[in-house]
Amino acid sequence: MTPSVRLQEMIRVIRSARTQGEERGIIQRECADIRAQFRQGDNGERSHSLAKLLYVHMLGYPAHFGQMECVRLIASPKYNEKRMGYLGAMMLLDEKQDASLLITNSIKNDLSHSSQYVQSLALCTLACMGSAEMCRDLAPEIERLLRASNSYIKKKATLCAVHIIRKVPELAELFIPAARSLLSEKNHGVLHGAVVLITELCARNPDTLDQFRKAVPELVQIMKGLVTSSYSPEHNVAGISDPFLQVRILRLLRILGHNNDTASDAMNDLLAQVATNTDSSKTAGSAVLYETVLTIMDINSESGLRVLAVNILGRFLLNNDRNIRYISMTSLQKIVQTDHNAVQRHRGTIVDCLKDQDTSVKRRALDLSLALVSAVNIRSMMKELLIFLSTCPLELRSQTASGIFNAAERYSPSKRWHIDTILHVLTTAGGDVRDETVPNLIQLITTASELHCYTVHKLYRALVKDISQQSLVQVACWCIGEYGDLLLKGECEEIEPVQVTEDDALEALETVLQSHMSSPATRGFALTATMKLSTRITDNVDRIRSIVSIYGSCIDLELQQRAVEYNALFKKYDHMRAAVLERMPVMDKNSPGHTNGDASGEIKEPDPSKPKPIEAGLLSEPASQVCDLLDLLGGTDTPLQPKPAPTITPTTTSSADLLDLLGGLEPIPVPTVTVYEKNGLSLKTQCDKQTETDVTVTLIASNSTQSDISNFTLQAAVPKSVQLQMKAPSGNVIPAHGLGQVTQTVLLNNPNKVSLKMRLRVSYSHQGAVHQDTVQIDSFPSLGWNCQPSINPL
């Protein structure tokens, strides 16, 4: 039986094994036989035994004992053994193995061998597993082979040079002259390797760009020859002449033309020719056209050429291949801000992609559709997006709702249309919207005073029809509490009037309070609305009093506290009840987050369901912090006297008693420091020293880009002597255009009062890419343990 048959027989036996145990037994017997063959020395069977061992290695079994045999076979003068030895080295050895250093001298000798096939074995092995030390030793030999007359060797030497540059970037200068001369070769394999080598040189060392930009006319001529060449069976792929080389040349032209007018002008005509003459019906042609589009968009191209590139991407949207549609929309997403009008021409096709069965295509179509919304097409686009919202997968509902809210905020033609749109979203996907949607809508409703009657009637009907959407129920309860008198009048010109009695309104709120679907926050809204109705109705005040008293013993502490306070308002402060529960004033939206505190003394939006008192201890805190900071600089014997806190006089209004009840104080602003700012994401910290050892750090993240940031997470680490507790974040999606924030509170306990440091890991997804960064905060503001804030991004 010949050796080759023995290998085939081994493969047949292994494949016929019925169980894994039987297979292991066969492998163990064969490995024992292979070891015996290796120990017998030069018996002519070593290469066949190594071939069997490589098959065993391919099956996932240990084959490390064959490494030294690879070294011995590489040194053999026989080509068959040398070939098997090099193959074994590429499979069994890597740069971490000491045995790889033993073949350096053999590779060097074979690089000077008279046979091109032996030289090629050495080149392939060095390009596959050459370590940094091997690359340094053999780089001069590779540079010599780049100037050889044999195209077969030059082709492999160029790819070997690419590997050397990746391993040892400082050796790049050695290959620059040879790389430039390789562009004059006619062999496509050598040309392909030369273009890859030049691309790698430009990417690793930007200083070489000026040298290779002189070769742009030569690259343009090569590319024109490929585009206009006649049929060549050796290089033709689906009617495209060597698409692999075309793609490589286009990538290199993209690098050379970036931010360079001269190089860009030299390739404009070529790119127009490629874009108009390449057939996109085959995958090979689509690949060339896609690279052409990327090159046009990345260089300083003419406006007409950019429109042509967008039209090519528009044709890709009609392709039956979902992969091509996906990359087309990904590219359009990147250029929609710079070439908005050109992309708008394909809006209908993009919207049709929302109906695609593939979720990833739907997601890209959604991102692009939201980016195309403008003041001109807001009504038609919103109609399509609302239809999509009702049928889209659950994982896309939150993103869709967020995008609709942002678009309506920016381009709404009227307040009524804005309110109707948000209510439509809440009715369809109220459980998938962000937490800030409720206060944002309440703020919008308060500013539209002419629509209060219309809004409260519409929300009442929605509440009676369905109480499963918690966000919608919360807004409806708030409106019924604020504008219950308008609801009971039943006079509304904008909508068909419906007569609502006091009992009807109270029954709707009681249904919310008693429903198992209502969250504690929703019950809080409903209880507050019920209490507010006590000043807007006349006949059912006793019923409201009984409803409130029931929840005075509620198991939910928040709801119980509200009920107890409202009972006290009925019993002890009934003379103040009308002033306390009067209609809320118009809320000014001074920031995307609707902050409650404002130095100007204006009344801002409180918690819709319950205002919370301000701690008087906040006033004395900054003075003690000043003393602590000055003490660090001290050495003085004179004790420092803190400056007395300024007296704050409450503003006199019609609800002066309420302000007096809540303290009439406004919180002193806490210093804010930006600790991270990258890719449009900004992360700020606010530090509040609660006691001598306890600190509250608030992390505030905002997004200034054109699209939402999703999967936002923060991780924190502090010294071992400090105890850390991270509260749950307010969300994991940061809205675009700074329209919202994500906050997370970190509680620190520093019993030893050591210098406080913190390391943050920021992770998030943006436009399909996952980002992760680490930030080192060496000290914090407003703390007596540190001198000054210091931020070191890692």
Automatic annotation (TrEMBL):
Keywords, sorted A to Z: Cytoplasmic vesicle, Golgi apparatus, Membrane, Protein transport, Transport
Domain GAE: 668-781
Family annotation (SMART domains): Alpha_adaptinC2
CC per GO annotation: AP-1 adaptor complex
Keyword Transcription regulation in annotation: no
Region (Disordered): 587-612
Protein's GO biological process: intracellular protein transport; vesicle-mediated transport
Main location as per UniProt: membrane
Membrane topology value: Peripheral membrane protein
A Pfam family that the UniProt record links to this protein: Alpha_adaptinC2
PANTHER family: ADAPTIN, ALPHA/GAMMA/EPSILON
Record-stated family: Belongs to the adaptor complexes large subunit family.
Name by which UniProt lists this protein: AP-1 complex subunit gamma
Organism: Phoxinus phoxinus (Eurasian minnow)
